[in-house]
Specification:
Low-confidence stretches of chain B: 1-5, 21-25
Helix content of chain B: 25-40%
CATH architecture of the largest domain in chain A: 3-Layer(aba) Sandwich
Structural class of chain B: alpha/beta
Distance between the termini of chain B: 57 Å
Radius of gyration of chain A: 21 Å
CATH superfamily of chain B: HUPs
Strand content of chain A: 25-35%
Number of strands of chain B: 16
Strand order of the largest sheet of chain A: 7-6-5-8-4-1-2-3-9
Helix content of chain A: 25-40%
Number of helices of chain A: 8
Shape of chain A: elongated
Shape of chain B: globular
CATH topology of the largest domain in chain A: Rossmann fold
Oligomer: heterodimer
Order of helices and strands of chain B: EEEEEHEHEHEHEEEEEHEEEH
Radius of gyration of chain B: 22 Å
Distance between the termini of chain A: 46 Å
Strand order of the largest sheet of chain B: 9-13-8-1-6-7-14
């Protein structure tokens, strides 16, 4: 049976949805073990165990996490060797992609990022050029290393209670290294992560400084709030909310675009969304070309009306 | 990579010519490679070049012996990215061009770039953009750092250098969704910068005229000690089996608000079972 190693980065108190998706995919491919560069709590490990994971790998030296990317890549490469894995799965954050990249060089193995589906023969599907092409590709050399997009695979609750056993691996850290000298946590919003959200309400230049109506609608729909680069550059919302070519790529079930013209750089981050709704004052905005439902109108009246209607219907 | 001389900073900026995002982009031919007819300097590489220029200016300018080299690889047209960089302010350029490079994936590209950087160097600092705007794999800078054995500071939103007895030290800031990090690394190092780090300058008339006198070294694979089998399709660790344009999204309904658009939006969402 193929051995599959899942790299889980920055474990929270319990498994995130995207991590459950990774473990579910891994369980469908073979026997799963997990590589954890950082310390994880018992609830998290119990969650990992419910996918039938027998073993999790940890570095002997906790300092791997103090060395940017290279430390975790060195650890992951050792964990792959120790587990004999033929397939390695990671999340799709920039950091995970870089860890995958360096691990690939260490193991003489091919890496494919942004994977949205996978065939039995390990042919992976991804989208290129901002979602305008669908590409099928395969790793031809070494271990198959894949970074997987959130919301692409179903998170199946495996429910096989097991207590995974910890295995420590020795890691030789790079001599010259970039070190993390300080870390400031940012306040948590309480809304879902943009890349994992089922619903996203995003605003652009037309929001004109006030994201209040978008936040209200997002909260009524249990969604996240995103933005175009114009809105983040204006300082109306934090940069991490940016969706587009230089921000995040998202594919939620529902994307509500408000006051965004829809230039190619913005479309790059959202055009694979399942359903797109657009609200813009300008009937000629390119966003309407890709919208399933477009409203030519003022977002400051349309959004609050929609929010009120959702609340009225008790949905 | 060897230690560079202490007299001045030697900075390599990796630049890439990419299909202009304003035009339609294609994958074509039997070999499923990118068509680069409307090519420009990748917008994201302009931030790396600007970061290099600002570092040089902050530490005594060209008079202090600092030097910025724009490096690229690819077909003949790829040199346009180097030319634009020279107009903006890089001191010289290097262009690796060889037919065998066609079809290189990230692993083969990073192998070629590693050999190229070593040949053109030594460099104290290798700067790149946060991703190319076409392949979007973000893999190449990390793989290049691994191959060169360099510390890697990716997605720097700020970048400073401090000279010291043991050489230069760099300090950078990185922002993620949940935290902001400060990073320190000794040189030599590889740094990728985000689009938040600066506002890139445009080439001015003086720069355009000065660029005509600057040197661009054109190299082949043999010049940098690589064989054709180490790059291109043969040297890649992944293969593209098929590529197809996504069916275009068909335009849906567009209505004009007549006072009830919010309610009609909720009706639409209910109809799609999205509530």
């Amino acid at each position: 049976m193929t051995s599959v190693l899942v790299f889980l980065d920055h474990p929270a108190a319990s498994l995130a949805k995207s991590e459950r998706e990774l473990l579910s995919l891994a369980a469908s491919l073979g026997e799963v073990s997990v590589a954890l560069a950082d310390e994880a709590g018992q609830a998290y490990l119990d969650g990992v165990g419910s996918y039938g994971v027998q073993r999790y790998y940890r570095p002997e030296d906790a300092a791997v996490s103090d060395v940017l990317v290279a430390g975790k890549a060195a650890f992951l490469a050792e964990a792959v060797r120790a587990s004999g894995a033929g397939i390695v799965l990671l999340g799709n954050s920039y950091e995970s992609k870089e860890i995958a990249a360096r691990t690939g060089i260490r193991l003489d193995s091919g890496v494919i990022t942004d994977v949205v589906s996978l065939e039995g023969d390990l042919t992976a599907t991804k989208s290129d050029f901002a979602g305008s092409y669908t590409v099928h590709c395969r790793v031809t050399t070494g271990v198959t290393i894949l970074t997987v997009k959130p919301n692409s695979f179903e998170a199946v609750e495996a429910g096989l209670p097991s207590s995974p056993e910890e295995v420590r691996v020795a890691v030789e850290l790079p001599r010259a290294a970039a070190r993390i000298t300080g870390r400031v946590e940012k306040p948590v919003s309480g809304r879902p992560e943009l890349t994992e959200a089922r619903v996203i309400v995003a605003g652009g230049r037309g929001v004109d400084g006030d994201f209040g109506p978008l936040e209200d609608l997002a909260d009524a729909l249990g969604g996240a709030v995103g933005a175009s680069r114009a809105a983040t550059d204006a300082g109306w919302i934090e940069h991490s909310a940016q969706i587009g070519q230089t921000g995040k790529t998202v594919s939620p079930q529902l994307y509500i675009s408000a006051g965004i013209s829809g230039a190619i750089q913005q479309k790059a981050g959202m055009q694979t969304s399942k359903v797109i709704v657009a609200i813009n004052k300008d009937a000629d905005s390119p966003i309407f070309e890709i919208a399933d439902f477009g409203i030519v109108g003022d977002l400051t009246t349309v959004l609050p009306q929609a929010t009120e209607e959702i609340r009225k219907r008790g949905l | 990579m060897d230690e560079a001389t202490a007299s001045g900073l030697r900075i390599a900026v990796l630049v890439k010519h990419v299909p202009d995002a304003q035009f339609d982009r294609h994958i074509s031919g039997d070999d499923l490679t990118t068509v680069r007819s409307e090519s420009i300097l990748s917008e994201l590489d302009e931030y790396a070049l600007e970061a290099a220029l600002q570092l040089v200016e902050a530490h005594g300018g060209a008079a202090a012996g600092h030097r910025i080299t724009a490096i690229t690889m690819g077909p003949a047209a790829a040199v346009n990215a180097v030319k634009k960089s020279l107009q903006i302010g890089a001191d010289d350029g290097v262009h690796l061009t060889d037919e065998a490079l066609t079809g290189s994936d990230a692993s083969a590209t990073s192998r070629a770039l590693a050999a190229l950087v070593q040949h053109a160097g030594p460099f104290d600092l290798v700067l790149t953009g946060m991703a190319s705007t076409d392949g979007e794999t973000s893999l190449v800078p990390a793989q290049l750092a691994e191959r060169l054995g360099l510390p890697q500071v990716t997605f720097a939103a700020s970048l400073d250098l401090t000279p010291g007895d043991g050489g230069w030290t760099l300090a950078a800031r990185r922002d993620s969704d949940t935290y902001a990090e400060t990073i320190e690394a000794p040189l030599p190092a590889l740094v990728s910068v985000t689009d938040q780090i600066n506002d890139p300058r445009y080439p001015n008339f003086k720069g355009i005229m000065a660029a005509k006198k600057k040197q661009i070294q054109v190299l082949s694979l043999a010049d940098i000690g690589l064989s054709p089998e180490e790059v291109g399709f043969a040297g890649s660790w992944t293969t593209v089996e098929a590529a197809a344009p996504r069916p275009p999204r068909s335009q849906g309904i567009v209505i004009t608000d007549e006072g009830d658009a919010g309610i009609r939006l909720v009706d639409f969402l209910a109809g799609q079972k999205l509530l």
